[in-house]
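Reopening this one. Same input as before:
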Amino acid sequence: MKKRELAAMIDHTILKATATEADVKRLCAEARENGFASVCVNPVHVALVSRELAGSKVRTCCVIGFPLGANASEIKAAEAEFAVSQGAEELDMVINVGALKAGDETRVRKDIAAVVDAVAGRTVKVIIETCYLSDDEKRAACRAAMEAKADFVKTSTGFGSGGAKIEDIKLMRETVGDTMKIKASGGIRSYADALAMVEAGADRIGASSGIAIIAAAE
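Same output, byte for byte:
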C-alpha cells in the first residue's frame, strides 16, 4: 500500500494526559502535511484542532466517555454535543463495558444511540474495548452498534489491558459485514502492523505513531 493511501486511513492520535497545546498543534501540522484522515484528541483540545485544520481535508475527531465508557448516557450525549459545537466532525465513544459484561445488550444499544442521536450527521465510532470481552460479547457489542446506527466499530481505547488484534478485526468484519466500517486501534506502531489490520478488514487505523508508520510505507 502506498504512503498516501495508508495515510488517508490513519487517525493521527494524541490522548495522553500530558498533551500540551504545542503537542496538539504539532500533530495537526503533521496531519495536514501527510494527509491523515483525522486528528483525534480529548474534548479539551477540539476547538484548537478545528482551528488548526481549517481549510484542509483532515477531519477533527474527539473521544467521548473516554477511556472507561462508564459515564451516564446523558453525559456522553452532552459531551458529544459539546464536541460538535467546538468543531468535531467524528466522535469515538466508549461503550458501557459493564453493561455488556452483564449481558444487557439493550442498555448498550441505547447508550450508543444516545450519542448517535445527539450528533446526527456526524461520524460515530464505537469503541468496544475488545481486551475485556469474550468473542460472544464482541459480537453482541457489534450488533448493538449496528442497531444504534453508528458508523464504525472500533477495537480499543489503547488504555485497556490490550489493543487491536487481527483475529478481532476478522470477527468484527464477520459480524458487521458491509453495514459498518471498522477501526483498529491500540498498539499499532509499525507499517507491518497497520497493513495487517487493513488486510484483515480494517477501514481506519488509530495510532499515535502515524509518522513512523507511513515513513516505512515508502
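So the earlier flakiness isn't reproducible anymore. For the record, Residues 81 and 119 are 6 Å apart (CA to CA).
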